[in-house]
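hey so i finally got around to running the thing on that chain from the lab meeting. sorry it took forever, my laptop kept dying and i had to restart like 3 times. anyway pasting the input first so we r on the same page abt which one it is
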Amino acid sequence: MTEDTREASGSNGPVGEPEPSLRHGGWPLPALKYWRKRRGISQAELARRAGLRNDYVFRVENGRRGCNPETAQLLADLLKVELQALRRKPDDALDAEPLPEPEHPLVAYLRVHQDYLRIMLKGAVGSAYAAMDEREVEKRCEGSAWEGVLEVVRARKREIGYLRDALGGGGVLEDPALHEDVRSFLESVLKSFPDLDIRLLAAARGRETSEEGREALAEAMRDLL
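ok and heres what got predicted. didnt touch it at all, straight out
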């Protein structure tokens, strides 16, 4: 999704009225942080669900940039509020009102999802890299020789193949009874392949000095393309 490069105009419009567009037409969303916290969603989780970078959501929340109408509507839909609610500055009463903690913090639930997936993958294919955060996998590969990176990528390929068969064949992701957070988590795991794996191989090839290693990593990248 295209992201606008915007700068805040420093407007101090009246409470209750939509904030005027930022320079170049970007929409400010002064109530985005308020409603995100109301829904018990972290900045990183909202960014993941919207397909945006974490720093993009951070800048919008802090008035440092606006976003296009399509992106603004997507954020409103994810937070289950009207778009106009995000465009209006919360009044002092709303700002002062304590935000309740969610009954089931999403960060804690993400760890639960990862643990369940790790257990399932370990038992089925003997490895569980797909259950790790992308940055965790990247760090692991940064400290590995090229053979270790190939091992991680090959293991992830087996894991994703198993998950696609298990989830797709049984229609699990289409089951309306499946909790939306679980569906979102599993879909994000499946979508990480092969983009993450190509990045891992490319980064390892950039570090590698031996011709054997560079050729093996290049061949593995070709297999994924």
